[in-house]
Amino acid sequence: MVFEHETPAQRVLFGAGRAAQNLTAEVGRLGATAVMVIAATESELAQKICAGLDIAVLFDAVAPHVPVDIAERAREVAAEHRIDLLVSIGGGSTTGLAKAVALTTGIPIVAVPTTYAGSEATNVWGVTEAARKTTGVDARVLPTTVIYDATCMLTLPGDLAVASGLNALAHGVDAMWAPRADPINRALAAESIGALARGMRAISADSTDLAGHEQSLYGAYLSAVSFASAGSGMHHKICHVLGGAYNLPHAQTHAIVLPHVLSFNAASAPESARRIAAALDSDDAVCGLESLRRDVHAPTALREIGLDEANLAEAVELIMPVIPPSNPRPVTAQALSTLLRNAWSGADAEYMRM
After folding, report:
1. Within its chain, how far is the Cα of 60 from the centroid?
2. Which sign, positive or negative, has the C-alpha torsion 37, 102, 258, 171?
3. Does 42 score more than 80 pLDDT?
4. What three-state secondary structure class fits 136?
5. Which of 80, 107, 221, 278 is the most buried (most CB within 10 A)?
6. Is-contact 216 206, C-beta < 8 A?
7. Torsion sign over Cα 282, 288, 292, 295
């Protein structure tokens, strides 16, 4: 084996019911004197978690895909209050906004996730302007510390928990064949896929299953770490373009597109497909994923989350230039058009097999 692997440095505190005490201790450890909390719909939860802190400002203007104007406003607020620590409490959009502030200011982040987005474990940032999403990689945006508390997931709506969990699982699948994929990434990704599958089935059956949420959080973290190291593959390139250009909900877009990309690539990456299948306790990766999706009642069609059929041709044009050349199977405009149309209509993913 010959490969080059980098693991970003990050502190992780994991424990149900410990978010408040872990956050207070971490702020003290970091010596922060001016804390800016970023939280939107989780503001009530944020107040409970931050009860032991002296907060300089709460910023709650969070929006999907991190619009540039909101990012600039948050940066201004941070400057006005001379903030020396950002605390994000929420899902991927909340973490993403904290990253946008950190990108230009270098202020460290402590992230408290309330979904399975995984953004808290990556050095990837993204902002949207004029219906186009720009992403990049920068060490400054990787949260210094992540605080995981499964009790923060208990109020997560069931449909969002499913979509968020499949978004996390997509990180693991993409890490199998992304541009910088290596044996370490693949090992972490396989473990993450298995943990997420177990966790999602448990919380789909009982949304109060704390052990199920813990398994899902554990899997989401591992999948994000593997993705951060391996880079963004075909699946994420597709979803980032769709989300930014057509303002589609992030997690649901990933949940819908994933089986189609897996079906497209599986035969051209047999070893990765074998590991994904084993993690899903199946003889076949695509069948295993589809079985999981049925069990958790996953969303199935892009048309049901706001993508107009008239946008499909433009989407192909926007996506083709960003597909990684290293994708296991060559991607043509015709193949991508077929993939998107079937994801739009909710067709069975089996059609993409070679």
Report:
1. 20
2. negative
3. no
4. strand
5. 221
6. no
7. negative
